[in-house]
């Protein structure tokens, strides 16, 4: 269906040769947003219980230097890496499943990672964080692949039903995880894994998050392939794209990113859902074009939530996953209502 643009009677036509510029996000908007993110990131270095001001950076004492390089800088890097990578993972899943409401949080991927961590702790209690992350990746791959397989065999006429299937599947997996954690006295540890929190991020405890940067770069390099695969299997094969391989690579990227982030800092609700939707609503569905902006917006979203988490009950701190859940939940409901209005 084509959309026509109406013009009031009597309005003068546009001059010949003058092209009307497409309204929307322009490059200078992105530049301004990037500058604002850099300023906010710099300001976040000075928010916390330990006193640290910009003037102290000119001549810091030993305690101030330790706070800066052991806690504040690693925390900021973890926020930026986790936020950008999870937003990109959600964007990739959204395109591959051709559904705006599919993300690692609504497809059950996060819950499968939690089950993998519990299983690794029970049967391989002495394993390293890298070992738990590897098992979490395997469980995330299996769970996400099962979700996609399930979607291919269900006839769903409503776009909103698809994430509900993933949420129900994630609920079943979460129930199994909770039972195992309760049975073997791991509930407290499971809560730490599944609730996003950057308060424990220190130098030497976040470096695995640099792997998600590599996954994000790979997603950008494969962006055109993901766009073609998102148009359907028949269309992709006709264009010479190896559909199955592209889908597997995309699911692997989303699963690896989710597992690393959950193991390192915990789960951040709705991050991979609302950020890609907001960016694509403003910029369109060109994956290569919107992916860098999605990464920046995801980092900004987590940064804002973290600053709120540190200041709401200062000098105490609430988990960033709690703040992200509230903000993301409100945006998720708005997106659902908007989709419903457009469908009517």
Q: Can you characterise this structure?
A:
By secondary structure, this protein is mainly alpha-helical. It has a single domain (69-343), classed as ABC transporter involved in vitamin B12 uptake, BtuC, CATH 1.10.3470. The protein has helices at 27-44, 62-97, 109-123, 129-152, 161-183, 187-194, 210-221, 223-229, 233-238, 243-265, 271-283, 287-311, 320-343. Helix 1 packs parallel to helix 12, helix 2 packs across helix 11 (271-283) and helix 12 crosses helix 13. The protein starts with 26 loop residues before the first helix and ends with a helix.
List keywords for this structure.
disordered N terminus; 344 residues; single chain; ABC transporter involved in vitamin B12 uptake, BtuC; 0% strand; mainly alpha; globular
How many structurally independent domains?
A: 1
Q: Span from first to last CA?
A: 16 Å
| CATH top level class name | Mainly Alpha
User: Could you spell the SSE succession in H and E letters?
Assistant: HHHHHHHHHHHHH
CATH topology: ABC transporter involved in vitamin B12 uptake, BtuC
Give the count of helical stretches: 13
The 3D shape can be described as: globular
Backbone structural class: mainly alpha
Beta-strand level of the residues, as a percent range?
A: under 5%
Radius of gyration: 22 Å
CATH superfamily: ABC transporter involved in vitamin B12 uptake, BtuC
